[in-house]
Amino acid sequence: MDTVSYPNKDVTEFIRDSVIPLRVRYDTQPLATDFSINWTPTLIILDMEGKEHHRAVGFLSPEELMPLLLLGIAKVHFDHNAFKEAFSNLEKILSDFPKSDSAPEAIYLKGVCLYKDTKNPKGLKEAYEQLQARYPENEWTKRAYPYRLL
């Protein structure tokens, strides 16, 4: 990622503006043990208390790295019940990176955010319908399958 993704201008700006990066070697102790890091690169999205909310292992292109980081940021907000902030990050994934590998999970989580924020199951059903239309074989479509009944 040092030769492709990190030097990318958009990635550099995104990281500078959106996260507090910390780079450690995969064998740095106690972090490697504390966070179960067994391979490199391993990207972990933590909240301000150091709790993990999202992780990815292996190379990511610039086009996949930014939506993955947005997804991690959205999950931090989601886990802290800040659904509007999570929703905003998920929308950014879908508008700026609609073909990324993070897009199906963003659709799923967007529906869950809507439900948790409003208690209206409509968002869950809409998420399933969007997933079924765009990604019929995706794991997130399968996870949303029960929502078709709402």
Question: Topology of this structure?
Answer:
Blueprint: H1 9-18, H2 31-34, E1 42-46, E2 52-57, H3 62-79, H4 83-96, H5 103-118, H6 122-134, H7 139-144
Antiparallel strand pairs: 1-2
Helix pairs in contact: 3-4, 4-5, 5-6
Protein name: Tetratricopeptide repeat protein
InterPro entries: Thioredoxin-like_sf, TPR-like_helical_dom_sf, TPR_rpt
Pfam families: TPR_6
Explain what the structure shows:
The protein is mainly alpha-helical and 150 residues long. 54% of the residues lie in helices and 7% in strands. It contains 7 helices and 2 strands; from the N terminus they run H-H-E-E-H-H-H-H-H. The longest helix is centred in the middle third of the chain and has 18 residues, at 62-79.
The overall pLDDT, averaged over residues, is 96
Rg result:
16 Å
Span between termini: 43 Å
Question: What is the percentage of strand-forming residues?
Answer: 5-15%
Query: What best-fitting shape do the alpha-carbon axes yield?
Result: globular
Pfam family, one: TPR_6
Protein name: Tetratricopeptide repeat protein
InterPro entries: Thioredoxin-like_sf, TPR-like_helical_dom_sf, TPR_rpt
